[in-house]
Design brief:
Helix 2 runs parallel beside helix 3, helix 5 runs parallel beside helix 6 and helix 6 packs across helix 10. By secondary structure, the protein is of the alpha/beta class. Helix content is 50%, strand content 11%. The protein has an eight-stranded mixed beta sheet, with helices on both faces. The N and C termini lie far apart (78 Å).
Amino acid sequence: MVGVLLLLLLLPFLLYIAAPQIRKMLSSGVCTSTIQLPGKVAVVTGANAGIGKETAKELAQRGARVYLACRDVQKGELVAREIQMMTGNQQVLVRKLDLADTKSIRAFAKRFLEEEKHLHILINNAGVMMCPYSKTADGFEMHMGVNHLGHFLLTHLLLEKLEESAPSRVVNVSSLAHLLGRIHFHNLQGEKFYQSGLAYCHSKLANILFTQELARRLKASGSGVTVYSVHPGTVNSELVRHSALMRWIWWIFSFFIKTPQQGAQTSLHCALTEGLEVLSGNHFSDCHVAWVSAQARNETVARRLWDVSCDLLGIPVDWLMMAAGPKRSLKQTTQHTLPK
C-alpha cells in the first residue's frame, strides 16, 4: 500500500521527466499545406475556444473570410478581435449558433445564406462531453443532439451553398472514443439507460457514420463536395469541464496532452491539403488516414442512422439529391459540352 501511494506521488514527476519524448510521439501530425485562402469563406463551429479557435485562426491567417459559429457570442467577439489582431485579417465574423436548439441552427443558416454567396469550408468542430443526462431544446439527448444531430442539420442547411462553391469540403471532428460507441436505435435519446462517457462515444461514432454516408451520397451525385472525419488527439481543452475525474486525469497527463494548436492540425489537413478528394469519407488522425472500428464501417447502420436523423429533424431523407436539383444536371451537361 505504501508503495502504491509513493508511486502516485511520484507519477507527476516521472511524467514530467518523460514528457518531451511522449509529447513528440503523440503530436506527430502537422498540416504541411501552404495553400492560401483569399476569397474563400469558412465556417467553424465552436470557434471561441480550443481546437475550433486554433482552426479559425489558421484559416484567417491564410486569408479566408471566417465565421466563428458560437453559442457564447460575447466570448466569440473577444476571440474574433484576438484573431484579427494576430493575423491582420479583419474578415473574422461572429454569429450565434446553439447546436442544442434547431431554431438557432436554422436562424444561423438563414442569416449566413443571406450574407454570403459562397461557402468553401465547413468545420463541424463544436461538441459536448460527459454531460449529466439532459436534453436539447428539441428533446434530443444532449450528446447525440449537439455532436451529431446539430451538425447533421447544419450541413443539410448549408449543403447547397457548398455545392455552388465547389470544390468545397466538410470536416467532422470525431474522436478515438468512437471505438466504444454503439448506435442503439431503441435508446437513441438515452431514456432507457444512460452513461455520460458512453453517450459521448456513441455520438462520436455517429459523426463517422454520418461522414461516410454523406461521402457516399455526395460521390453518387457528383457534387464536388468532399467530407472527412478526424480524431484530433487528446487535447487540453474545455471539453472535459463536465467531469471532475476527466479534469484530474487531464491534469495528471497534462505534460504530454496536445495543445489546441496541435489538436487543430488534422482538421486543417483535411480542410486544406490538395489532392485529398479521392479520400472523401475517410477518417483521419495525425494527418493520416486512420483505422476505424467495425461499427464505424457498417454501411447498414450508417444508412439507418441517416434515415432516423432525418426523421427526428423533420427533413427529407433524400435532402442531398433535392439540394442538387436540376441545376446540377445543367451544370454537368454544360461542362461536358463546352470545348476544352
